[in-house]
Amino acid sequence: MDVPVQNALTIDVEDYFQVAALAEAVSAEDWPVMEYRVEANTDRLLEVFDRFNTKATFFTLGWVAERSPDLIRRIHKAGHEIASHGYSHQLIYTQTPDVFREETRRSKSVLEDIIGEPVTGYRAASYSIT
I need a labelling partner for 97 at 20 to 30 A (CA). Which of 11, 89, 104, 129 fits? Predict the structure, then answer.
């Protein structure tokens, strides 16, 4: 008897210029003028996942959600989980507790306002929980 394989699939909804590896080359103040690719790239993933009836958790930056609320709605409408990836992709070990708290609350609030449901998942930027 064949048993279906269960896997977990997660996606970080962030743009190429927001990753920690580029933090010294691209400042957060420059993000608004960078080429914005996250919508087109995420839409491609949504098409593939739909074709193969696959669901994922989308760990989403609050910064992206504020700029692309319709993208977040499309992800949610397609049946995927929306989770927080913080607001601005700051490494946790560089944040004060107050900054971490504000980043987390802000991202969670933005995402919940967009999808109208509680957001319970969280992934630290660059897996920076130490």
Answer: 11
* The residue type at 100: F
Range of the domain at 76: 10-18+36-127
Return the bridge partners of 122, or none.
Answer: 84
Express each pLDDT in 33-67 by its tens digit.
Answer: 888 999 999 999 999 999 999 999 999 999 999 99
CATH of residue 104's domain is: 3.20.20.370
- Distance in angstroms (rounded) separating the CA atoms of residues 130 and 66: 28
- Please choose, from the candidates 16, 6, 123, 127, the residue with its C-alpha nearest in 3D space to the C-alpha of residue 64: 16
Taking the alpha carbons at both ends of the chain, their separation in whole angstroms is 43
User: CA torsion sign, 8 to 116 to 123 to 22?
Assistant: positive
Q: How far, in Å, CA of 90 to CA of 32, rounded?
A: 16
